[in-house]
Write a sequence for this structure.
């Protein structure tokens, strides 16, 4: 009797069919959703139209569970008797941070995250030919940036170099580049390998960042290293060594590096247009300490110190027999401390503190053909412009705190505040001037996800600067909408304020904020191996600083343009390339410009193609970058008899062409038992030897004009990078054989 | 009284047997479904059938193990499978299997599946994913060998990893051969219980033959 009951329960023939359809919120069938009767073995899976059908021998009340990754699980109690059961269920989408749309208008995200917006990794930066592992140089191959070779900085969408700011773990970097040398661009101070994530925003960025009119480079430093390792770099140009340790419990790490760069040997082999009387020498030392907190947060400290000196002579533009000797000594000390913590209950905290000091000792001296100082020249009005010394000191101390609270699901609100104390002292021939500024900023923004496919970010930033005694409020707004899997449109709007530069504030603090308003629309389509982007923008400049006839905020301007980006790792096997193109139409009236003009750093058309091919058989990567930009305008502004500036001469430089090439050979790649990991690297810029003219300098009387040229047509680099680490992962395998 | 005890005992025994019969029948049916599966959709249907047994039984690790296997097998060849999403599902099943598994031997089998999921993710973009998913895949095998040094599948998979790695990168036939040899030795000694994993011997012997060529 008992036996037969059980038999019926299991093998009973009274089958009931359960069928139906599973849809998403737009009524489209969901493929592969699992349908099951709780506590039974019976169930099915939906087909490509979302239909399912299965039979069951169960009877009575059962909970039916319908689930699929990315959707909220659906349950319903059904009664199974004799009649077939038909269900039509729509599943609610689960909000998911990785799947959710993010605002891509204006932002190029680079890093190792899974996010779709990722464009470049730190390896990409290092292997971009022509960049020589300089983050800024690699970012210049992305749309939006100009090919400015005569000064450092990122000139983005009609903005000057100082309109782009860099932030490391949230805090601003005061001197991101090695100190300026006239007509020569210097490198960035930070290695790409310090960072796990880089966002290059060409506009419309979050209210968390301020004091940048045009662009923000947001760098996120790495957490703990993968293992303990020592490293060394050897090259005719530089020598360096370092160590990075990881504690046994993998909770903390420290590291230190030192490098020395000296160009004497190089300049003996490769002739330079300028005569270096003091060969460039750079000492760099850094130290880091990182520790994981108990609740999974991170505290990171990074400091770097550098000292450099150089001296160079060029023929003087105002005479036939004199030379200009320029000397520069620089001390720079940078400190960054950050603390990231999960506070629980959906709260996150990011604290940061920074201190940096930078000193430049600059000398400018006229010399004769025998390199003797010329200390007086009667009746030459330009003489005082050529003989001087300047001592500059720039200090910046800052603290910052940002708190984030999740608002159910993945929507979040973020708010915080930062305070900067800047001390800038400039001593020109014994005349000292100091600009001190206390800048306070408070900001808040919110990410609102209506669905995985529709996100809104709204924020505002308030700033007060004590030196100009003025405040501002900058609203920011952006919206992203997913149009199909991997494709989205986003738009961004924002106003951006930046206080005048210190060299202007030294003259007068009776100035206000400069202002830019950004309008951006973007379409992006991403798959695992391909990215396509198109972006159009309009930017309005107001209250730019004029230096003539008086120092005021009467300047103005605009920039508009359209940009394309395409990256493809798929079409050609082992071949990775990207193409970017920027069209820029910009005019501005600032400094001593006589009216709105296309500025001398802006080209109408800029295009880059970056290619990378790694040949595994020979463990060698070959990288070629080609960049083209149409000519840039140049001007000679002169005062007329009524005391107004006019354009005495103007023109357009010849188009800019550059092809960079680099090769990296990794002989120990993949050899897990190798004790030494070796990278041999060689690169050359401007392989084709194109004549690159960045602009023209005019003599004091305007009768002589000379092209601004790079100090040498090509820059060559060869180096060997070694690292020694212990990888114990194979031990268990070898022991068992 | 005795009769009653006997009746209760009888009832209990029958229920237990019926329960395990139901499990055995379900597993048998699903293993047949898995064996007959050809397309990715077939395998997904089999995976969800295994998942239902796992969810109903709660204390059995094998249904989840096979659910994970059903998602792993077609992903090697099917380029349309989103490897990250698929691997997330596989790892989800592995976690449920681990929760139900009681012996180190069982857990070693699960590590083998985790290795395959991570390997599939790594292969999406080996150059940039080697550091993360390559390491994850290697760690799974290391752990598997520690849990059960006599599991032939972890040696087979380690051998496959080396076999598919170019010689210049520290792989190659010579490196893979001793692992395949070890795996064959272990396969011959293995006596898998009913429904327990027994796959890989033929493939290992075939690869070993290729190494000897």
């Amino acid at each position: 009797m008992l036996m037969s009951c059980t038999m019926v329960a299991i093998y009973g023939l009274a089958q009931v069919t359960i069928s139906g359809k599973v849809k998403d919120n737009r009524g489209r069938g969901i493929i592969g959703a699992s349908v099951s009767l709780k506590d039974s073995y019976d169930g099915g899976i939906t087909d490509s139209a979302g239909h399912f059908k299965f039979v069951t021998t169960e009877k009575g009340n059962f909970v039916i569970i319908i689930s699929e990754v990315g959707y909220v699980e659906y349950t319903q109690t059904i009664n199974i008797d004799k009649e077939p059961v038909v269900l039509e269920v729509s599943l609610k989408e689960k909000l998911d941070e990785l799947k959710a749309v993010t605002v891509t208008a204006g932002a190029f995200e680079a890093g190792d995250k899974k996010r779709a917006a990722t464009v470049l990794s730190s390896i990409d930066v290092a292997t971009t030919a022509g960049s020589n592992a300089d983050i800024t140089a690699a970012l210049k191959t992305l749309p939006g940036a100009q090919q400015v070779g005569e000064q450092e900085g990122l000139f983005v969408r009609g903005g000057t170099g100082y309109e782009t700011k860099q932030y490391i773990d949230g805090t601003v970097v005061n001197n991101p580049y090695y100190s300026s040398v006239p007509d020569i661009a210097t490198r960035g101070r930070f290695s790409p390998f310090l960072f796990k994530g880089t966002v290059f925003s060409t506009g419309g960025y979050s209210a968390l960042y301020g004091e940048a009119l045009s662009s923000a480079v947001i760098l996120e430093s790495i957490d703990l290293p993968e293992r303990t390792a020592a490293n060394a770099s050897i090259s005719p140009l530089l020598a360096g060594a370092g160590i990075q340790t990881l504690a046994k419990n993998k909770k903390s790490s420290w590291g230190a590096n030192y490098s020395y760069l000296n160009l004497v040997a190089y300049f003996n082999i490769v002739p330079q247009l300028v005569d270096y009387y003091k060969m460039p020498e750079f000492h760099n030392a850094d130290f880091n300490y990182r520790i994981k907190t108990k609740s999974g947060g991170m505290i990171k400290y990074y400091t770097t110190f550098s000292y450099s000196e150089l001296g160079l002579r060029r023929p003087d533009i105002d005479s036939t027999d004199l030379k200009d000797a320029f000397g520069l000594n620089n001390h720079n000390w940078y400190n960054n401390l950050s603390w990231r913590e999960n506070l629980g209950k959906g709260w996150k905290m990011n604290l940061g503190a920074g201190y940096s000091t930078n000193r430049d000792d600059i000398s400018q001296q006229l010399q004769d053909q025998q390199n003797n100082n010329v200390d007086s020249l009667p009746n030459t009005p330009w003489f005082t412009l050529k003989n001087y010394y300047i001592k500059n000191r720039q200090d910046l101390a800052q603290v910052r705190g940002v708190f984030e609270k999740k608002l159910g699901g993945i929507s979040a609100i973020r708010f915080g505040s930062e305070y900067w104390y800047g001390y800038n002292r400039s001593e020109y021939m014994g005349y000292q001037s100091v600009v001190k500024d206390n800048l306070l900023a408070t900001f808040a923004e919110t990410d609102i996800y209506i669905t995985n496919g529709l996100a809104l970010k709204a924020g505002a930033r308030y700033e007060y600067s004590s030196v100009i005694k003025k405040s501002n409020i900058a609203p920011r707004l952006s919206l992203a909408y997913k149009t199909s899997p991997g494709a989205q449109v986003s738009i961004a709007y924002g106003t951006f304020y930046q206080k005048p530069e210190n060299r202007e504030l030294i003259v007068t603090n009776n100035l206000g904020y400069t202002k830019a308003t950004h309008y951006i629309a973007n379409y992006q389509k991403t798959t695992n191996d391909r990215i396509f982007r198109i972006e159009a923008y309009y930017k309005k400049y107001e209250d730019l600083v004029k230096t003539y006839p008086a120092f005021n905020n009467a300047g103005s301007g605009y920039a508009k343009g359209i940009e394309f980006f395409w990256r493809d790792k798929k079409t050609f096997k082992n071949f990775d390339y990207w193409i970017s193109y920027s069209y820029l139409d910009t005019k501005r009236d600032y400094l001593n410009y006589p009216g709105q003009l296309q500025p001398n750093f802006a080209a109408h058309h800029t295009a880059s193609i970056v290619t990378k091919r790694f040949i595994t058989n020979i463990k060698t990567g070959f990288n070629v970058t080609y960049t083209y930009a149409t000519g840039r305008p140049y001007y000679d502004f002169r005062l007329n008899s009524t005391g107004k500036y006019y354009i005495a001469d103007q023109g357009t430089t010849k188009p800019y062409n550059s092809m960079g090439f680099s090769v990296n050979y990794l002989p120990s790649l993949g050899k897990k038992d190798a004790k030494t990991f070796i990278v041999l690297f060689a690169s050359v810029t401007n392989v084709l030897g194109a004549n690159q003219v960045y602009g023209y300098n005019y003599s004091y009387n305007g009768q002589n004009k000379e092209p601004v040229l790079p100090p040498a047509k090509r820059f060559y680099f060869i180096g060997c990078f070694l690292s020694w680490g212990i990888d114990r992962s194979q031990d268990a395998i070898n022991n068992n054989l | 009284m005795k009769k009653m005890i006997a009746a209760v005992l009888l009832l209990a025994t029958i229920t237990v047997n019926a329960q395990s019969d139901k499990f055995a029948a379900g597993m048998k049916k699903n293993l047949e479904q898995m064996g007959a599966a050809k397309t990715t959709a077939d395998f997904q249907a089999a995976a969800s059938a295994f998942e239902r047994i796992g969810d109903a039984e709660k204390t059995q690790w094998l249904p989840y193990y096979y659910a994970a296997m059903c998602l792993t097998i077609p992903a090697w060849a099917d380029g349309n499978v989103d490897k990250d999403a698929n691997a997330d599902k596989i790892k989800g099943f592995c976690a449920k299997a681990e929760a139900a598994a009681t012996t180190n031997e069982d857990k070693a089998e699960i590590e083998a599946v985790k290795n395959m999921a991570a390997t599939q993710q790594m292969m999406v973009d080996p150059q940039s994913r080697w550091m993360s998913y390559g390491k994850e895949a290697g760690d799974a095998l290391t752990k598997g060998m520690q849990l059960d040094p006599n599991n032939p599948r972890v040696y087979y998979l380690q051998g496959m990893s080396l076999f598919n790695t170019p010689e210049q990168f520290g792989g190659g036939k010579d490196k893979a051969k001793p692992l395949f040899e070890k795996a064959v030795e272990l396969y011959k000694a293995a006596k898998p219980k009913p429904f327990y994993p027994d796959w890989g011997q033929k493939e290992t012997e075939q690869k070993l033959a290729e190494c000897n060529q």
